[in-house]
Amino acid sequence: MGRLVRRSVKRPGAAPGTLVHTGLQKVERTRVRTLDYDVERLTESELGDIEECFPLKDSPTVSWINVDGLHDVELIRELGEHFGWHPLMLEDIVSVGQRSKMEAYDGYLYLVLPMLSWDPEGRHVVEEQLSLVLGERYVFTFQERFGDVFEEVRGRLRAGRGRIRSRGADYLAYALMDAVVDHYFTVLEKVGDVTEEIEGEVLDDPKHSTIGRLHSLKRELISVRRAVWPLREVFSRLLRAEDEHLSSETRIFQRDVYDHTVQVVDTVEALRDVVSGTVDLYLSTVGYRTNEVMKVLTIMASIFIPLTFLAGLYGMNFDYLPELHVHWAYPVLLLSMAAIAVSMVVFFKRKGWL
Fold first, then answer.
1. How many angstroms separate the CA atoms of 308 and 94, rounded?
2. CA 269 to chain centre
3. Which DSSP letter does residue 164 get?
4. Which 3 state secondary structure label does DSSP give 136?
5. What's the pLDDT band for 8 if we cut at 50, 70, 90?
6. 98: which residues sit within 8 A by CB, 6+ positions away?
7. Which of 150, 176, 174, 184 is nearest to 263 (CA)?
8. pLDDT score for 14
9. Residue 15 falls within a domain, yes or no?
10. I need a surface site. Which of 75, 138, 212, 229 has the fewest CB within 10 A?
C-alpha cells in the first residue's frame, strides 16, 4: 500500500490553497463522465471539455460528475472557480494521502474517503483517495485512476431500480459512500484468506520466508487501519451535522453506513490480533523445533559420554593395564559399551524424554 509516511512535494511555507498534485500520475489523461437524471430520464456522457459540465450547476436534475485523474490541476481549478469551491478544498483534492474527513462549506459538503481494492497478482491491498463534493443538485467524485466500486450504483441508475432515481443528490452521495464501505468487506475477506493461508503454513511447515510474509501482512493491516479508522468519526459527524444538504430521510440510511464502518474497523482489529498471534505462533513453533533438535543432540551426547570415557580409558598406551592381555577383553568391552547405551536409551524412554 505504499509508504507509511508519504513524501511531500509541496514547498514548505507555500500559500494556502496552492494546487500541487502530490501523488503519482496514474492515468495519461483526465477523464470526466457525467450521469444526469431525474425520475423520467437519464443522460450519460463522457465530456471532451470540462466547460460542458458547467450548466449542470443550475440544472433541476440530479448530476453525478466523476473525474478520473488528479494530475490536471488546471482542470480542477476551473471547476472550483465555476462552482464556487474554497481553495483549501481544491488543495485537498489534489493532495493525495489525506486523512478521511468531512468539511462543511457554504452551499456544499466535502468528504475524503479511502477506496480500497485487492490486487490479485501482487496479493496486496491498493489504496486510492476518493474526494466527494455534495452540492444541492450535484455530486462530484474525484479519483486517482480509472476503475472504481461504483458499477452497481451506475447499474441501479441506468435501470431505475430502487429509490435512487426519485431521491436527491444526498441519496446519491449516500449510495456512493455505501458502495465504498461495502467493498471494504470484500477486500478484508481476501486479506483474511491470506491470513488463514499463512497461519496454516505456520502450523504445518514454517519456512524462513513465512516471517517475511507475516510482517508484510502486518504492515498491510496497519495501513488499512489507518485508512478506515477515521471513518467512524467522519460518518458520526455527518449524522450529527445540521446541514441542509442531508435530508432526514437520507440520514436514516446513513446510519447503516456508520454501522458497516464500525464492523469494518472491528474486522480490521480482529485480523490484526490474528496476525500478531500468528507471529507469536511462528516464533513458538520455530523455538519448539529448535528445542526438539537440541534435545535429540543432547540425548545422543549423553549416551556417548560414558562410551567415550571407556574408549579413552582403554585407549591409553600403558603396558600394565589389567585387561590388556586377557583374550576376551575386547569383545567384553564392546558388549559392556552396548549394554550401557541400551540401558540409557531405556531410561530416557521411561522418563519420557524420547
1. 77
2. 11
3. G
4. coil
5. low
6. 92, 112, 129, 131
7. 184
8. 62
9. no
10. 212
CB contact at 8 A, 145 and 23 = no
Q: Both 270 and 333 in a single domain? A: no
- Closest by CA to 173, choosing from 55, 257, 56, is 257
Query: Which residue, 102, 177, 170, 162, is CA-closest to 137?
Result: 170
Q: What is the pLDDT of residues 265-290, one digit of tens each?
A: 999 999 999 998 888 888 888 887 88
Q: What is the CA radius of gyration of the chain?
A: 34
pLDDT tens by residue, 48-107: 888 888 988 888 999 999 999 998 899 999 999 999 999 999 999 998 888 899 998 888
Asked if residue 70 and residue 216 are part of one domain, the reply reads yes
Tell me the range of 18-22, 36-40, 298-302 where mean pLDDT is highest: 36-40
- Three-state DSSP state, 331: helix
Backbone angles phi, psi at 106, to 5 degrees: -75, 105
Q: Answer yes or no: do 95 and 134 share one domain.
A: yes
Place of cell 493461508: 197
Is residue 310 within 8 A of residue 336, CB to CB? The reply is yes
In the chain, how many domains are there? Answer: 2
Q: What's 11's DSSP letter? A: P
Domain boundaries, position 71: 31-285
Average pLDDT over residues 150-174: 90
CA distance 92 to 85: 12
96 and 58 part of one domain: yes
What is this structure's pTM? 0.80
Spatial distance between the Cα atoms of 134 and 348, rounded to a whole number of angstroms: 77
The stretches of the chain forming alpha helices (DSSP H) are 73-83, 87-94, 151-159, 169-204, 208-228, 231-240, 248-313, 329-351
Grid coordinates belonging to 81 = 472557480
